[in-house]
Amino acid sequence: MYSKTTATPDKGLLDEIEGVIQGHRDGHGFVVRDDGESDIYLPPNEMRAVLHKDRVKARIVRQDRRGRPEGRVLEIIERPPHPIIGRLLHESGVWLVAPEDKRYGQDVLIPKGLTGTAKPGQVVVVELTEPPSLYGQPVGRVKEVLGEIDDPGMEIEIAVRKYGVPHEFSDGCIALARTLPDAVRPQDKRHRIDLTDVPLVTIDGEDARDFDDAVYCEPAQVGRAKSAKGWRLLVAIADVSHYVETGSAIDIDAYDRATSVYFPRRVIPMLPEKLSNGLCSLNPRVERLCMVCDMLITATGEIQAYQFYPAVMWSHARFTYTEVAAILANTRGPEATRHKDRVTDLMNLHDVYRALLKARSVRGAVDFETTETQIVCDDNGRIEKIVPRVRNEAHRLIEEAMLAANVCSADFIQESKHAGLFRVHEGPTPEKKDILRGYLKAMAVGLTISEDPLPAEFQRIAQATKERPDAQQIHTMLLRSMQQAIYTPINSGHFGLAYDAYTHFTSPIRRYPDLLVHRVIKAILSDRRYELPALPTPGEAHEKLARRLASRAAAPTNKPKKPAPATSREVQAWEAAGLHCSANERRADEASRDVEAWLKCKYMREHLGEEFGGVVTAATSFGIFVTLDAMYVEGLVHITELGGEYFKFDEARQELRGERTGIRYAIGSRVRVQVSRVDLDGRKIDFRLVREGEELAGRGARDKGDKGAPPAAKASAKRSGRKSTTEPGERERSPIQALKASVKKAAAKTKGKPRKSRR
């Protein structure tokens, strides 16, 4: 199928490399290598016979002018099932499906008679019957009709199939769920502590339907001294493990999902509704089974002692964050009057929260201020508005209580020398440290990080910059310099939270790792050992990725700890489980972001031609990204829309500067834009700069007589390319990724003498 290259590659280029194809909407692609090295660029002609997500064997045949590896596909190792979602089209007598995910790059031909009941323009799911070849398009048949593109909820139907999110429970799971009781039975209470008289309460959002944590706090003497005042904090978590047995049909479905997936107006739960919203949910004024982390906390926020035990509880109230924040702010207000019996308990919770907050500060944990948005829809699924999620004292109170319980869980498992899953968050790699230093210098922050940084250094930078207009961008860069948190049995600490050991215990209704932690804790309490059920033997690539993730799990000081024996089948099983849960957590995040981007694009289609004020959140060689003040929506002002002159990108300062007028567009700049184009398929929004108005005052005068772009501007447009925001050989990047890439280039240019080895 593939002819051998006529090039004479260097000896180092002869290796055969395995990886997964990552397609690009512009026709080229990449091989994402199993060994974690740099991706291999594949030109469009190499992508004709392969599809996005194919596993291949490739060889590097040359380096491009920028020193990046370019390759050739040698063999297709595995072609996983490719259910492709797209719109059915009928053109010139030919039926075809245009994939919604543009990374697939080719339309799928549908033979006459295999379209089923689908009509032109409808969104369908296609099953491939013939793969693509060098000289032929892929062929398939319509497997499922989803409906019209503008149907309410269509974006979610597309996303769950696009990312392979399991959205239907198996027949065995549904049948088993029906056999479960509707309430706690007398036999379920055996060997449990009765906490029904303890006024535990739940505190959640207004729209929450599953309640997996309840809290209670009271003053207590901590230590022998009479003056040693502190608190007793109880965190009760739904005992899902009592009803979901290892290896059962419900357990298999839960493991497959690994997490609940949250979309606007819809949740795809990890567990059947009878469990997630009923039997396991800590609903008010009903008995529920729970696992309790019972802690003694000192006045300085130190956890002096803790114990775990199974219990039966009775939730005495269902609070919302808004209600609790109002009570804490005014203990004589209307909310406090309605819940006067619980006001003292809530004040105790607030006191222990402030003590835990002091301990967080002493510990040096990182606490970034970022803005999250919430999409508010009407009953028909139409977006009414996009608003920021405001975190109040009640949110932080619950967060600190959950962190304390999670730390105790990790310590309990570690001290018991039992295998389990830890939540590991790594500090920055050497490369990312260099990028961050270069960025902080370019932004004139005045602070930097050391060669062996501590979380406190990041927190100092965050505190020092929190009043700057570009604070959110700086905080995002600080966060992105760290590694992604993963689940692994090899404990290496949590860098961001500054914990030596950390795990997830508090959300077993929606996260499978928490369910595993509950099972391990129960096993330790019963003086036995919990063993994972036999899992299918992972493939070679799976093992490579597991080893790579494990080897990258550095301690908070970036000094590697001695790993568990690689030959242990128990550790290998936990590594596989951790890898599976980490991958599916990312899958859920990607699906949620995709739906959110779709909805924002759909929303902005209704505002085409309208003008808004905004702030520049990223500057790149091809334009500036602007986030609207009122909408919290981000879009691109392409460099060709900035006016009739040549703009040069300053990598060190992260800004675009006009050569003739000196006008600058940098992170934090205020601009006024008009919504000019919305690409629903590409999830992209384009803005046009509005040159009149106060936003541009003081930044240089424009020549209003220019009616056409001069040759320099045309040359700038030609080099940047209007079709795509990436150059050939580059993955499509987000504003942050583009920002990081350009900072990396600037750091490389200004890099001094190489540092001596720290060995």
Structure description:
This protein is α+β, with helices and mostly antiparallel strands and 759 residues long. Among the domains are: 11-78, Nucleic acid-binding proteins (OB fold (Dihydrolipoamide Acetyltransferase, E2P), Beta Barrel), CATH 2.40.50.140; 84-149, OB fold (Dihydrolipoamide Acetyltransferase, E2P) (Beta Barrel), CATH 2.40.50; 420-497 and 528-591, no CATH class; 607-749, Nucleic acid-binding proteins (OB fold (Dihydrolipoamide Acetyltransferase, E2P), Beta Barrel), CATH 2.40.50. Helix content is 28%, strand content 25%. It is built from 16 helices and 31 strands. The strands form nine sheets. It has a five-stranded antiparallel sheet with strand order 3-2-1-4-5, with no helix packed on it. Strands 8-7-6-9-10 form a five-stranded antiparallel sheet, covered by helices on one side. Helix 2 packs across helix 3, helix 7 (343-363) crosses helix 8 (393-415) and helix 9 crosses helix 16 (735-749). It is globular. Mean pLDDT is 83; it is low at 1-12, 535-567, 693-736 and 746-759.
Outline of this structure?
This protein has 759 residues and is an alpha+beta fold.
Strand order of the largest sheet: 3-2-1-4-5
Enumerate how many helices there are, as a single number: 16
Which percent bin holds the helix content?
25-40%
> Can you tell me the CATH superfamily of the domain at 607-749?
Nucleic acid-binding proteins
- Principal-axes geometry comes out as globular
Rg is 28 Å
Structural class call reads alpha+beta
User: What is the typical, i.e. mean, pLDDT?
Assistant: 83
Instruction: Assign the CATH topology of the domain at 607-749.
Output: OB fold (Dihydrolipoamide Acetyltransferase, E2P)
Text of the CATH class of the domain at 607-749? Mainly Beta
Q: Describe the sheet with the most strands.
A: 5 strands, antiparallel
